[in-house]
DNA sequence: GTGGTCTAGACCACG
DNA sequence: GTGGTCTAGACCACC
């Protein structure tokens, strides 16, 4: 697992890390027993400060998703995946098709993002946070 | 246009306002010449401080999207023009269908969000920001 | 770099700060990689409020000239590169000579300013802004 | 005399009007006895609100430069010109030559402006307000 | 100790 | 009544 920090997004770095771990769990890329990258690895690959990584891992531990084992690393305790991998793959493929069409219709990523958010916000015609 | 601020998202309130205006422009809900709600209206409807709204509006002005006219309001200057409304509507409908299926397969909103982000990030297997 | 705020000029303090940074870039006193004074330094040396400084620095950041790095300061990102320092020095010397003559002819600073502005406005006979 | 208002300069509109009248006096374009444009004319030609023009004229009257005569207009009372027109013309010509050179050396208007201001600020190496 | 966010409230410029 | 400026001060995120 590799982290990517977007300095200009306005979202605090430690929350971006937490979010990316949660997403990996959601998507089944990480599951119970897997080891997270060491703090040192994250520092090296993403450029954030070690304290920032520690804060993210601590937050994940507090929410019960991971477990730090002294001397051996941080491990995933619980999954967040809610669906069968095959179903996920099918949904993913169909979504990828939709994205391709949207792009062909001339929408750029920000357009697509806006559309997705507005649909998820439930057709109320108001985009959220 | 109505704003919604999510105090728990970690994203600064003024950035949420900026983002919502940009999304409205993307989706065609706002176009050149339209007037944004007055600062006072936003304060009344969303509960944020007036300066927070001013900061968001100023940021939009600096990026050339809107124009403040003293004494008369803040107006949209340029669109973030996406696509033909009909095409948008069709894409939206198909996306809504996909979301329905995903929900029926047991995915919750956070699952769907993670899936969308990972597809938009383009098959690289890393969710972003 | 030291800032000077003229409270009686009618120009908002934050715009004076922005302008002075831009001028320093124009004149080559600041270049890529240089660090701006910290917000606290500016507050101490110029007496303006910290938020006023932050607003100026943020405006510079939005226009792509500087970059704020949390915990370490605000740094110049791009130059507003003008000309070769030697050419600048020569032009400056000749201008200084002209100013001396103008003063000897009895013009005060406001006269000189008016004359410069009218010449820069390009023989149209109308001074601007 | 024609006024030009720059909405984006940050300087209040009424101060821009005051300044332009003062500059016209400095440069000898206006002299004692000349009539300023009527408020209505200024409104028509510059687009500002009538109250804004009135405020500017009132300010000029308070500083003793002009005089409002009920029913006939606003007239210049005192000059601000400090030098002989011929001397002014000579200085202006030499300055225009300098500006031409600066432009040929690749400086744009903002560069020139920065240089002029820094020289006027007296060689101290700090540009002012 | 760095920059950044937000609040509350006074006051100004403009229509 | 519109947007804009500035202040004072509390608190947060990050190094």
UniProtKB/TrEMBL annotation, chains A, B, C, D:
Transcription: present as a keyword of the record? Answer: yes
Q: Which CDD domains does the entry link to? A: WHTH_GntR
Q: Which InterPro entries match?
A: Tscrpt_reg_HTH_GntR, WH-like_DNA-bd_sf, WH_DNA-bd_sf
Listed Pfam families: GntR (PF00392)
PROSITE patterns, A to Z: HTH_GNTR
Question: Which SUPFAM superfamilies does UniProt cross-reference here?
Answer: Winged helix' DNA-binding domain
GO function term, MF aspect, one: DNA binding
- The superkingdom listed in its UniProt entry is Bacteria
Keywords recorded for this protein, A-Z: DNA-binding, Transcription, Transcription regulation
Domain HTH gntR-type per the UniProt entry, residue ranges:
11-79
Give the protein's recorded name: GntR family transcriptional regulator
What organism is this sequence from?
A: Saccharothrix syringae
């Amino acid at each position: 697992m590799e982290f990517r920090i977007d300095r200009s997004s306005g979202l605090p770095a430690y929350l971006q890390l937490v979010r990316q771990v949660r997403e990996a769990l959601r998507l089944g890329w990480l599951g119970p027993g897997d080891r997270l990258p060491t703090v040192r690895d994250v520092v090296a690959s993403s450029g954030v400060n070690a304290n920032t990584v520690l804060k993210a891992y601590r937050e994940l531990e507090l929410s019960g998703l991971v477990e730090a084992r002294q001397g051996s690393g941080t491990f995933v305790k619980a999954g967040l995946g809610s669906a069968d991998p095959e179903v996920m793959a099918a949904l993913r493929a169909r979504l990828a098709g939709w994205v391709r069409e949207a792009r062909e219709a001339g929408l750029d990523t920000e357009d697509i993002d806006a559309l997705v958010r507005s649909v998820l916000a439930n057709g109320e015609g108001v985009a959220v946070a």
